[in-house]
Design goal:
97 residues, alpha+beta, PH-domain like, four-stranded mixed β-sheet, three-stranded antiparallel β-sheet, 2 helices, 7 strands, globular
């Protein structure tokens, strides 16, 4: 029984965990087993949005990040203001809306 619970918890964490990391070169978006890396130099715009559309965000209060030419992703960090400050610090060319 205990072994099953531990295994279930590990599988559950693998599929449910969502987090975002900004390092020196990229924004990493991790949702369950899927991961996406976005080069910081490709990020052009970020803006707060409210949306019910399915995405890597875990809340309807999101940040929409535009990158490359026509790509965007919606994320929902716990502290959106701090996340946007850090993103702007790492991407001086970023246009905040």
């Amino acid at each position: 029984m205990y072994s099953y619970l531990v295994q279930y918890h590990l599988v559950d964490d693998l599929w449910i965990s969502t987090y975002y990391v900004i390092n020196e070169k990229e924004l990493i978006v991790r949702t369950g087993p899927a991961s996406k890396s976005i080069p910081l130099e490709s990020i052009s715009k970020a803006k707060p949005v409210r949306s019910w559309v399915a995405s890597t965000a875990t809340s309807i209060h999101r940040i929409e990040i535009h990158y490359s030419r026509y790509e965007y992703i919606q994320i929902s960090p716990l502290d959106q203001k701090a996340f946007l400050r850090e993103l702007q610090h790492r991407c001086p060319h970023l246009q905040l809306q």
